Amino acid sequence: MATKVVMEALSPTMEEGRLVKWLKNEGDQVKNGETLAEVETDKAIMELVARADGVLRKRLLPENEAAPVGQLIAVIASPDENIDALVSGAGAAPSSGGAAPPPAEVVAKGNETAGASSVPRTAAQAQGEASTPPQEKVTSAPPAAPGPRAPAPAQPASGNGGRTRSSPLARRMASDSGLDLQAVQGSGPGGRIIKRDVEAAVAAGPAARPAAQAAPAFQAAGPDSRDVPLTQIRKTIARRLSESIGPIPTFYLTAEFDMERVAEMRTAMAAIGDEYKVSFNDIVLKAVATALAQHPEVNAHWLGDKIRYFSRVHLGMAVAIEDGLITPVVFDADRKRMSEISREAKELAKRARERKLKPEEYTGSTFSVSNLGMFGIDQFTAIINPPEVGILAIGALEEKPIVVDGQVTTRKRMRVTMSCDHRVVDGALGARFLQTLRRLIENPLMLVY
């Protein structure tokens, strides 16, 4: 019995994946659970594993090519089984006529197992995770009678009362290109518009575009420039930011904190021993987590028809990587000692830059922090990561002249800016949160227990 190998949702927000490398060749014996290929998701490089024993009879997706979740990319079968019917139907994601049942466990297997979160979760527990049908066992149909066959005529893409039938990837590509899908002929099942149809229409020129949406004329890359295809993570960043900065009514609160006592405490801790060395960022993370525990109204998610408030603080920390940005999560940060946060933050940042984070390590945050102080940025505004309702932007420490008890002196100061979703966080609420954060940071012994 043949088994379909499809592009699986290896991360909670994945819509398509790029096949980085096949680890099995056609004709190789494979076992259930054995790694078939490495796939780049929107967050990391993950392993795609076999769901059945047999022979890898056909690889349908070349390396470095992308495919939407659900698309057939390979076939596992017995050596003598006829798979012509399966192979001939490859190239399109399954129709969205019905939702697939959620998987019972995480289908992705990370590149390594060390450094797992202290709050292990299954894929079904991750907020907003898209489920993907498991690799499906099918009985091959008998081969069609041999003989010449005329190419099938192009089918109209409309259906369901005039609605254009198209895959999610095709719709997104058309939107990015300013393409009118009504003018595109679909070549997928039942005339469904798929990726190759949009690519062909875009290559054909502006004839299929409405005048108001004609794509701007860009000069082709020359000797002084180069075009680089978008990575999966960069595509996800672009989509997520457009979901945030436009629809979310955001306002900003900026405050400046005195960091003199934090600097003194950090120096004193380092003098005790290496195991007590912490960074300014570690202290800020602990302070933010403690403040969130005291203000659960800010530790929340906006879910459209309801607001979800959390009693546990799972703190996301933005980490810059080569292809963009990822936000690993320090779970239960308010309950951890500063030294624990320091060790976990360093390990998560290291694994993030190596693209080895597992989905459960970068999903589930209830609030996020972004720090650009190490780059000399004194103040900036960060974009909220939906469905969270706030994010704190941390600037650089600076020696500034200020007046203390009527005398001008210099002290270490740091500016922070909180981005607030006004649908949940009002101005007074955000201000009270920053007041609490100021009290904790300017009296850091309150964080040591």
Features:
Chloramphenicol Acetyltransferase, five-stranded antiparallel beta sheet, Dihydrolipoamide Transferase, 449 residues, alpha+beta, OB fold (Dihydrolipoamide Acetyltransferase, E2P), elongated
Give a structural overview.
The chain is α+β, with helices and mostly antiparallel strands. It has helices at 84-88, 168-177, 195-204, 232-245, 260-272, 280-294, 338-353, 427-442, and strands spanning 2-6, 16-22, 29-30, 35-40, 45-49, 54-59, 66-68, 72-77, 137-138, 158-159, 163-164, 250-258, 300-302, 307-309, 315-317, 319-321, 324-326, 329-330, 367-371, 390-404, 407-421. The longest helix is centred in the last third of the chain and has 16 residues, at 338-353.
Sequence-ordered SSE layout with sheet pairings:
Blueprint: E1 2-6, E2 16-22, E3 29-30, E4 35-40, E5 45-49, E6 54-59, E7 66-68, E8 72-77, H1 84-88, E9 137-138, E10 158-159, E11 163-164, H2 168-177, H3 195-204, H4 232-245, E12 250-258, H5 260-272, H6 280-294, E13 300-302, E14 307-309, E15 315-317, E16 319-321, E17 324-326, E18 329-330, H7 338-353, E19 367-371, E20 390-404, E21 407-421, H8 427-442
Parallel strand pairs: 15-19, 19-20
Antiparallel strand pairs: 1-8, 1-9, 2-4, 2-7, 3-6, 4-5, 6-8, 10-11, 12-21, 13-14, 15-18, 16-17, 20-21
Shape: elongated
Helical/strand content category: alpha+beta
Fraction of residues in helices? Answer: 10-25%
Strands in their spatial order, largest beta sheet: 12-21-20-19-15-18
Task: Describe the main β-sheet briefly.
Answer: 6 strands, mixed
Assembly type: single chain
Query: What is the rounded distance between the termini?
Result: 61 Å
Order of helices and strands: EEEEEEEEHEEEHHHEHHEEEEEEHEEEH
Number of helices: 8
Averaged pLDDT, please?
79
User: In what range is the share of β-strand residues?
Assistant: 15-25%
